[in-house]
Design brief:
Length: 291
Amino acid sequence: MVMIAFLMGIIANAAAQINGSTYKKEIAEWDNKRLESLKSATGWVNLSGLFWLKEGENRFGSGAENELVFKEKAFPALLGTFSLSGNEVTWKTAAGNEVFIKNEKTTSATIFSNDETTAAVLAFQTFRWSIIKREDLIGIRFRDLASPLLDKLQHIERYTINQDWRINARIEKSALPSVSILNVLGQTTQEKSPGKVVFEYKGKSYSLDVVDEGTTNLFVLFGDETNAKETYPTGRFLYIPRPDANGNTVIDFNKAFNPPCAFTPFATCPIPPKQNILPFAVKAGERQIHL
C-alpha cells in the first residue's frame, strides 16, 4: 500500500509538471503572437505620427509652412492636402508625388465619411496612413512600415509565469449597462459593460468593471501597485473569456499586457477607471517596455 501510494504520488507530480509545462508553452505562444501583432503592418510599433485635422484645408508634408508637418528627409515638402468638412475627409495628392489606395494611384479621393470602417488606407513609399475619429476629433494615424523601432523591439519583458495568477472568477451583472472610460486625450466615453468580474486573491474578494467590445472575449482595464515602478504607469489591459451559463470565467493575469501608449506616443489609450485599481501588486504579465 505504501508503494502504491508512493507511485501514485509520482504520477500526480508528473501530471502537474506536464500541466505546468503545457501552460508555460501556452503563454510562450501567446507572447509570440503578441509580438507579431505589435510589429505587424497594423500594429502599434510602426506608428510615427498622429495629426489632428482642422476644418478646411490641411497641407501635409515635411515643409514647415504646412499645417501638418512630418519631418523626414525622405518625405516631400508637400505630399498632399487633407480637406475636412464636417465628418468627411478628402485627399488631394500634390503634383510630382505618387500616392496609392489599394495599389491604385490616386490624385484625389474621399477617404473618410462618418466612421472608421469606411476609412481608406493611403500609401507613399514605406508610409501608410488612415483617418481615425475620437469623439469630436478627426485625425491622421500615420505609420512607417520601415520604422527602426520594429527591429529594436525583440521581446517584451514579463514576470515569471505563475499559475497562481490564473484565477477562477465569475461575472456579476450590473444594474448599469455601461461604464465611464477616460482616455489620454481627456475624453470620457460610455462603454458597454456586462458587469464586473469578481475573483478572490489571498482570501479576499475583488472586482473589476468589464467592457464588452463585441468580440469573443471581454476586455478589462486595470491598475495595481506595480504601476510606474515595474509596469506601465497608468495600468495594463487583459482579456477574459465570456462566462459560461453559470457566469463562471477565468481571469489570467499572466496575460496582462501593456497598452499601446507603452510603445508609441501616437496612440489614444483608455485609462483604467478608479474602481479598477487593485490595492495589491500584480506581479504577472508584461512589465514596462523601454524603446
